[in-house]
Amino acid sequence: MPITIVIAICMVAGCLPFLAWSLTPGDAQFRRDIRRNLSQGIDGYSVVETAPAPSLSHVGQRFVLPANRTKLDKLLALAGRPAAWPLPRLLLAKPVLALLAAALGLLFLNAAPGSGVLVLVVLVVVVAYFIPDLLLYSRGIERQTAIGLELPDTLDQMLIAVEAGLGFEAAMSRAGQNGKGPLAEELVRTLQDMRVGMSRREAYQSLAERTAVPDLRAFIRAVVQADTYGISISAVLRTQAKEMRTKRRQRAEEKAMQIPVKVLFPLMLLILPVLFIAVLGPTIITIIPMLSGQP
């Protein structure tokens, strides 16, 4: 058996356990830390401490550049920091996926050697290395789109609550508890930041940093200015809610105007040729014998 096949098989066999560990959600240590923190000061309650398992998260950090780690952490924040995708696991998954792709590429290169195949293998390895970044980017885009769609309705709910006599934080809490989706989660987290001692301005700015929605950031700037200069929050909410509804309608109209342009290329490349074949095909079949002089 060629040595390249042996090396590729060993690399695949070695990468599979690390890949399974990095992709399998596990928060046992996280739950133990929570139980230990909650049990402090309670008599008669003890948590059985076990020796921590050897962590492999530092292995992935050696193969990821600091700039890429910072970018990955930012993408993770935009994606809502899913519990199944902690940063150490993502850092480990990047080199593991690259090694797995390299092992499979060696097998393919051994079967069909060539410069073109080598370039293809290198490209696949690079793409496999950045698969976690691509997944987080896609997840973040979906989450920010959902926040932008939920914002006008949430502002209307907060406006109704404020006009009914509630304060701004109480209206935010009601909208966060009654709502569903990423925006409600972000509102609840903002209120939790205030409860643990963070000022309003810092909590609002932290909310703006965790999201990349321009409309939400504009609303946060308006709320911060209203809090600074003593402007009525109900007036700010009314203006922002009306503006958000207008922007949502304009975005819907813009997407509706883009539909004819997007349909044009599939229509010309896929539908019209088939239609011409179905309509003109029998006529051409009938004319060809006449042109050739056959009866």
Measured distance between first and last alpha carbons: 66 Å
Form type? flat
Sequence stretches where pLDDT stays below 50 over 5 or more residues: 42-54
**Proportion of residues in helical segments:** over 70%
Largest sheet: none
- In total, how many beta strands? 0
Mean pLDDT: 80
The gyration radius over C-alpha positions equals 29 Å
Assembly type: single chain
Short overview:
Helices cover 80% and strands 0% of the residues. The chain has 295 residues and is mostly helical. Helix 7 packs across helix 12 (233-291) and helix 9 (182-195) packs antiparallel against helix 10 (200-210).
Describe the structure.
This protein is mostly helical. It is 80% helix and 0% strand. It contains twelve helices and no strands. The protein has helices at 3-23, 28-38, 57-62, 66-78, 87-111, 115-129, 131-163, 168-178, 182-195, 200-210, 214-229, 233-291. Helix 8 packs across helix 9 and helix 11 packs antiparallel against helix 12 (233-291). The N and C termini lie far apart (66 Å).
Task: Itemize the secondary structure elements and their pairings.
Elements: H1 3-23, H2 28-38, H3 57-62, H4 66-78, H5 87-111, H6 115-129, H7 131-163, H8 168-178, H9 182-195, H10 200-210, H11 214-229, H12 233-291
Helix pairs in contact: 1-5, 4-7, 5-6, 7-8, 7-12, 8-9, 9-10, 10-11, 11-12
